[in-house]
Amino acid sequence: MERTFVMVKPDGVQRGLIGEIIKRFEQKGLKIVGLKMLQITPELASKHYGEHQGKPFFEGLVKYITSSPVVAMVLEGKDCISLVRGMMGATDPKKAAPGTIREAFGIDIGRNVIHGSDSPESAAREISLFFNEEEICKYDLSLAAWIYE
Ligand code: DAT
Ligand code: MG
To answer: pTM of the predicted model, to two decimals?
Structure first.
C-alpha cells in the first residue's frame, strides 16, 4: 500500500482543527501509521520546503511553518498520495474545490492549514525527514475488507 506524509500546519493546530482534519482521513478509510506533534526548526523547514528556496514567499513560509507546533502523520492506503491531495484541495484556498479541507478552513494561500506530499518521491523524502522507521507502526486494519473490495 502507498504511504504519504501529511501535516496539520501551525494555523490548523492553533485553530483547533487537528481532530477535524484527522477525522476526515480516518473516515475516508486511510490507515494512520505514524503520528506526532513537533515544533519544526528552521533547518527542518528549509529541508522540507527545499524546492521553494529562492522564491519570494520562501522566507514567510519558513517563518510560518516554524511559528507554532504542527501535527505530522504518515497515512497508508490505496493511491493515498493523490487521494489526500484531492481531499486537501488546491494550494490557494480560494481556488480549492467545495468539500475540500482548504476550501472549508482556509482563506489565504499562506495559511492553508494542511500539507500533503505531491508525489511518491516527495512522500518518501518527507516521511524520512519527519519519522524514523521505528516510529511507523505496522499493523492490519481490521476493517480493510469493508474499505477495499
Ligand atoms: P502545496 O502545499 O499545495 O503542495 P506548494 O508546494 O506549491 O503547495 O507550496 C508550499 C506552500 O507554500 C503552500 O502550501 C503555501 C505556500 N505558497 C505556495 N505558493 C505561494 C505563493 N504564491 N504565495 C504565498 N505562499 C505560497
Ligand atoms: Mg508542495
So the answer is: 0.97
